[in-house]
Structure formats: C-alpha cells, structure tokens
Amino acid sequence: MKLRGYKRAFKFDLMTCFLGLIILTVGIVIYSYKVNAENTLVLSNALLNTTISHGVSETTHHLKIAEDSTSLGSILLANKLDLVNDKHLEEHVIKILKQTPFLFMYYIADEQGNFVLGYRNKLGSISTKLIHNLKDKPSTLWKYRDKNNHILDTKTEDYAEFNPRLREWYEKAKISLKTYWTEVYKFHNSEADNIYQAENDHQQLYGITIASPIIDIDGKFKGVVGADISLNRVSDFFSSLKIGKNGKALVVNQARKVILYSDLTMKELTSNQEIRVNDIQQDWVREGVQEFFKRFETEISYRWKNKNYLVKSYDFSKKIGKNWFLIILIPEDDFLGETKQARSTSLLITSLMLCLSILFCLWLSRSLSKPIENITKTMKKVKNLDFSELNPLTSPIQEFQQMSDATTSMTQGLKGFLKFVPPSLVQQFIEEGEAAVVAEHQELNLSFFFSDIEGFTSISEEAAPKELMTDLSDYFDQMTNVIVLKHKGTIDKYIGDSVMAFWGAPNYIAEHSKLACHSALGCRRAIDSLNEQRLSMGKKPFNTRIGIHTGLAIVGHLGSSDRINYTVIGDNVNLASRIEGVNKIYHTNIIVSQMTYRQVYQYFIFRPLDSIIVKGKNEGIKIYELMMEKSEADEKTLELVAKATQAFDYYLLGQFQQAFKVYHQILSDNPDDEPAKVMISKCEHFIKSPPDENWTGATRMFEK
Q: Residue 653 contacts by C-beta under 8 Å, 6 or more apart in sequence?
C-alpha cells in the first residue's frame, strides 16, 4: 500500500542506521560522565568544606582571642584601675600586643579621659601613647621603640589632644555594659609611624574595634579595654586562600556590603564609595552571592551563562555576634574539568571510529542528492524571477545533466520573455498557477505616462539605421531604469520613440500619482545626462516631452486567444497621450492634468499653465507644468509660481488686463519663459475681442 502525502529525502534512510549508532555511543559517554561527575562533586564538596573550615577557624581564632584579651583585661582591671599612677599598665599593653600579633592596637581608657595605648609602628615594634587628663596639668606622652623594644625617642605635649570618652567604642560599651563590636571604620592614627607596612608610608588602615567595659565589684562602670583588629591583615589571609583554580572567598554583612574580598585590596574595599554585592565586577560571583541571600542556605548550587557553580557559606554571628557571612564560590569545572576532558577524549575516540563510515555515507548521499537540490534551488529562484547567480549544473550522471540543461534553457527563455511582459504580471501568473485569459480585466484608478522625443523625425533622417537603433536603445534603457526599477512602474509599450507606462497595476500602489511624477523628473535628469554625451559626440539631443494623467481605465489582457498583451485602455489613457502633445504649444517638458495635480501638489512644485479641451472631449481640464520637487525649490522658482498662479486666476476670472500685466512681469524677469508668452498672446486677443458670456476659460485643442 502506498503512503500518500508522505515524502522524505532518500538519503534519510541511508543515515538512519548511523544516527542510531551515534545516539547509542553518546548515551554511553554521557552516562559515564554523569557517574564520574557525581563522584568528583563529592570530593569537591569535601575540599570546599575543608577550605571553609580553615577560613572560619583562622578568622574566628583571631577575633575570639581579641575578644578574650579585652574581656580578660576588663576583669583584671575591675578593682585596681589607675591609668595615671600604675606604671605596669604600659607593660601590660605591650605584652598583649606581643602575644597577639594580629592586633594593631590595644588600649585602656577611664572615665576621667586618661588613656594608655599600644600600637604597632613601621619599625615592626610597639610604641605607646599615654594621656593623663589631669585638671591642673593634662599631658600626652609618646614613646617610640625599635624592634628590640628600646625607646628611640619620646615626645611630650602639654595637653590631651584625644578624648577616648567620645569614641563610639567607649560610648557603646558604657551604655550596653557588655563587649561591643564596631562596624568597619578607618582607624584613628595621626602619627607618621602608625602604619601597617613599612614600605608604604601612606597606607590607611581599616578594621574593627572590640571594647569591653571595666566594671568594679559594686557594679560601677570605670572604663573600657579596647583592641583594634586590622582588616588589612585578615584581607591578606583571604588573598592567600587557594580554592581550586578560580575559586573566590569573601565576607559580606547582612546589609550586603562587602567586608573582605580576595580579589580586592583594602584600599578598594574602603574607598569613598563602599562596595556592595551589586558592585562586584565578576558577574558569576555577584550572581552567586545574590543567590545566597535569596536562600540563606549553607550549601547551594546555581547556573550562570551555561556554567554550574558551587557555593558554601558560614554565619559568623554564631561565634562573634556580628552579622557577617563567609561565602566561598567555585566553578564546578574546577573539579570536573579533568572529567570533562576524559569524556571528550572518550567521545573523540568513539567518534573517530564512526567518522570514516559517516563520511563515506555523506559523500555518497551528497553525490546523489546535491544535483537534485541544486535544480530545486534553481527552480525556486526562477519561480521568484531571481536570475542572479544561476550556474549550470555539471554531473557525471546523465539524467541529472539532462535535467540541468533543460532548466538552463527554460530559464534563458523566461528571461527573454520578461523583456516583453511586465515581471510583476509574470510573477502573478506563477503564484496563481493559471494561464492568462483574454477576458480577464478590471477597472482601476491608475496614473498614465506618455513621452515623446521632440523632432525625432529629423534626427532619424540624419542618422544611420543601425546607429539610430543603438541610440534609441540607450535612451530606452535610461527611461526604463527610472520608470520600472526605481519607481515600480509598468512599461506598456514602446511606440517608435515614445514610451507608454502606467502605475497601479498589476500590483496596486496607493501613491501611483506620486511615483509617476517622481519618474518624470527622474527621466528628465537621466535624459539631460544622456544629452550631454550626445552633444559631446556632435549628435542632436533627445529633448523629451512627458504627459501624466490620473483616472479610471480598463487594465488586463487584450488580444487573441493565442497572442495577448497586458495593457490599459480608456478615455483617460487617450487624455494622457493628448496632454503629452500639449507640451508643443507651451514649449514645456512635463505637463500633468489637474487630476494628478490634486493627488501630489503637496510634494512637488507646479505651475498652472492653462485650461484646455483636448480633441475628442467637450469639457476643459486644467493643466500644470511639473517643475521640481519641493525640496529643490529656490526663491526665484517660488516667486515665478506665485505670479503664474495669480495671473492664471485673473485669466480665468476674465480679468485679462490684470493677467496680462502679471504675465508681462514674469516675462520681464524671465525673458525666455515660453508659457508666459503664450498666455500674453491669449490675453491680448481677449482684450481686443472679449469672449462671450459662456466662456469657461478653456482652450480647445484641434490637434493631437
């Protein structure tokens, strides 16, 4: 039983078995990859957990010891706080800083404004600052030390320039009566040696302060013990973390501000404009952190730009009471890259075994199907009347070569046929799949174009027939290029030296009057250029006259049952031909009827010529000279048109004296203006012999 309507390429069957083998092989490779990927992910999670544990351990170790140092200090000093007289406090501060190298400052302040401070200087040793805020004799003493802790220099000031009681860490610890952690801020270090790295004399330090209140046995607040942890040191630690090849580690707070980031320096992190999660440059890191804040899970995965990523997090608030989160992100390919490489190798080996067979199959199917595909492609282009890049097919298979030769002959014949029939009409026949019928016609509103060469008879008498045919062919090439190719017109026929064209059929165009006028101006420009060449060769110019009219006409197939022509017929077609001939009287190049003028007057510059009654008609129509497009008009032309309009209005009203006067002004400004001469002559006639009361202003034309 035959399957009707079921069609497939014959090479399909040839490829089916090979595709099945490929699909089976790919399935095996994918399954192997999936198993290996799952095992690798288990190992990668273990590595990530180890990295996070290391980062959390190191970070919380520093922070916890700092907190313990302040808490223990506050307990030890609860009942014997004397910052002015106790000389051991300075040694205590230095000892704490030596034991906790990650602390930048350690200090004690009391309610009287006294202050004992130890800090790390650029020499790698510890300097101290003592403020005695005595009412009668306040003072500040600086002691600078070398690496061996020997005092190099001292400086004494007779005032207490720093009041610790006004600092946030002091006020918050006093109010809360418990250990207080500040947010990240810029450390107060005005001395020249208060730096972190000796090689950089201008590095600004940022960090956090841990402040524990000193409360005596009676519960009375006495002062505060504080420690500054430099985030520069912690940042160095984060930068040293190696998480796969491309892993990133960062610390952010609840407000989504970046505290630490392995890709940024502290200077970048603490610039004037704070860095938030949305400001992170790496898009996959930014997406991963945002994904964490959406879920708040310790372990998540996400996909970004066709790549998979893993995220691990730790909440610091569990250990230090700060809403900080350690987030570590890593591309899955850092762990699965080798697995993917192994999969690619396996796939390559498998593919190589199939390639030879597939290539042979492809070559064979291509050799058989390519000629048919080329012929099909050629036929589709011919159907669309596209004859570009049509190359003859050569095939060693006899039947294919015969098909190609037949197609080439048909194509050449169709190309020749299009020179006699409008391409749009042929396209319509092809699309409808029906032959042209003589009886098919319709009445449409169209625009008609007639042209004629002035004095062509004398030109033809002086030229040899072969030369004349060549010159006419060049002339018609210019006209056809403008009318058909540039402005979508249809050439009806060539009548000797004349061209008959129309717009609006077989494909309807709404602005057919506008296109007809554009074509007339375009033809004039093209013929002017052609005439320059003819004059340079000593030949007479082809001065072309054009007439345009818009109206109803019958359009369709006209002729016998075996020989037809696609054309237009009707009174309006004849009127367009008569209008072209009127150019002889007014010595103009392009005349349009009032019907065309009404459609396009807003786009072009027209000059009213006259009202005429052509041969075979009883009613007059106004005619206008098409001068140029509005965008090209200059003041002189506009002034001429205004005067011609005024004069013609006087003329139609029978005010011949006024019309004569204005036409005479036009002639004075333009001595060669032939339409003005014609109208002056008519005004003179009517001034001498006024018309009767039935005069309508129209002049009857007795010649075609």
A: none
Query: What's the length of the chain?
Result: 704
CB count in 10 Å sphere of residue 236: 14
Q: How far apart are CA 612 and CA 609, in angstroms?
A: 9
Q: What is the DSSP letter of 562?
A: S
- Which residues sit opposite 108 in a β-bridge? 116, 225
CA dihedral 472, 473, 479, 483 (to 10 degrees): 140
Q: Which amino acid is at 416?
A: G
pLDDT tens for 357-384 read 566 666 656 665 666 666 666 666 665 5
CATH code, 423-600:
3.30.70.1230
Out of 1.25.40, 1.10.10, 3.30.2310, 3.30.450, which CATH number does the structure's domain 242-331 have? 3.30.450
What is the CATH class of 79-231?
Answer: alpha beta
pLDDT of amino acid 293 = 86
Tens-place pLDDT, residues 681-701: 999 999 999 998 888 888 887
307 Cβ contact list (under 8 Å, min separation 6): 284, 331, 332, 333
Helix or strand (DSSP H, E) at 224: strand 221-230
H/E run at residue 468: helix 465-480
What pLDDT digit, counting tens, does each position of 308-343 carry? 888 888 787 766 667 788 888 888 777 666 656 665
- 417's enclosing H/E stretch is helix 398-417
User: Tokens 């036929």 — which residue?
Assistant: 379
Whether 79-231 and 242-331 share one fold: the answer is yes
**Cα 481 to the chain's mean position, in Å?**
36
Q: How many CB atoms lie within 10 A of CB 394?
A: 9
Ramachandran angles phi, psi of 624, nearest 5°? -135, 145
Indicate the Cα dihedral angle 56, 58, 64, 67, nearest 10°: -120
Per-residue pLDDT, 6: 52
In angstroms, the CA 581 to CA 575 distance is: 10
| Residue 598 CB neighbours (<10 A) | 12
Q: 139 and 160 in contact (C-beta within 8 Å)?
A: yes
Q: How far is the C-alpha of 224 from the C-alpha of 83, rounded, in Å?
A: 12
Question: 613: which residues sit within 8 A by CB, 6+ positions away?
Answer: 619, 620, 621, 698, 699, 700, 701
Q: What are the start-end ranges of the E strands in 498-578?
A: 498-503, 544-559, 564-569
